From TrEMBL:
It comes from Nonomuraea cypriaca. Belongs to the short-chain dehydrogenases/reductases (SDR) family. This is SDR family oxidoreductase. SUPFAM superfamilies: NAD(P)-binding Rossmann-fold domains (SSF51735). The keyword Oxidoreductase applies.
């Protein structure tokens, strides 16, 4: 069996950096046409556009804040105008901060919840008319959803919320032939360098002896976006090296 996404039309939120960038490029290289969004202009967006052009396909980069309903409406309209329909929606956009719970301002709680949980709500709801039978919705969650981590109560709560959202939508949208799943990465090495002490600690905790790579996550997302996973629904797949 070979992972093929030829002719698939896929929306990926938050695709200019880190895991999201790896997902966008992985899907495009597997043959999919991809629309992705980003919040801030910069070299990351410029270089991604260049890489996608070199990859080939009908790809689009759109500036959009997934916590803003108007921006989400514009993003979905771009998908409709470009493709007519969507085969998969991948929710990667999100924010994080590190704040002791006793000192966590309500405004920061709202910011993280509105982005990490409100964004998937808005994008999923508005994208539904474009998704037909066989469609796939993939939420990029986090391994911390089930284990917790200090200073990130707000972030962890949103990632745990995605698991509940997935279970409910899998049952509600399943009769329409739409699958809904979560990919939950563990420690992943992105373009941001990992401090040596942190790297050493994770290497001891992870049986495979290394941090994950963005391609490790992208491969699982590609599987869930493909027809190979047509009977996988309502699941959380940990990509954590067995930590």
């Amino acid at each position: 069996m070979e992972l093929k996404l030829t002719a698939k039309k896929i929306l990926v939120t938050g695709g200019s950096r880190g895991i999201g960038r790896g997902i966008v490029l992985g899907l495009a290289r597997a043959g999919a046409d991809v629309v992705t969004c980003y919040r801030t202009e910069g070299e990351a967006v410029t270089s991604l556009a260049r890489e996608l052009k070199e990859t080939g396909g009908d790809h689009h980069l759109v500036r959009a804040d997934v916590s803003d309903p108007a921006d989400v409406d514009d993003l979905i309209e771009r998908c409709r105008a470009s493709y007519g329909s969507l085969d998969a929606v991948v929710h990667n956009a999100g924010v994080i901060s590190h704040v002791p719970f006793a000192e966590l301002p309500f405004e920061e709680w709202q910011r993280v919840v509105n982005n990490n949980l409100g964004g998937p709500y808005l994008v999923t709801q508005r994208a539904l008319p474009l998704l037909s039978e066989g469609g796939s919705i993939v939420f990029v969650g986090s391994r911390v959803a089930t284990v917790g981590i200090p200073l990130r109560a707000h972030y962890t709560a949103t990632k745990a919320g995605l698991v509940g959202l997935t279970r409910s939508l899998a049952k509600e949208l399943g009769p329409r032939g739409i699958r809904v799943n979560v990919v939950a990465p563990g420690p992943i090495q992105t373009e941001e360098p990992t401090p040596p002490p942190v790297l050493e600690r994770y290497q001891k905790m992870i049986p495979l002896g290394r941090l994950g790579e963005v391609e490790d996550v992208a491969g699982v997302v590609g599987f869930l976006a493909s027809d190979l996973s047509r009977f996988v629904n309502g699941e959380t797949i940990n990509v954590d090296g067995g930590i």
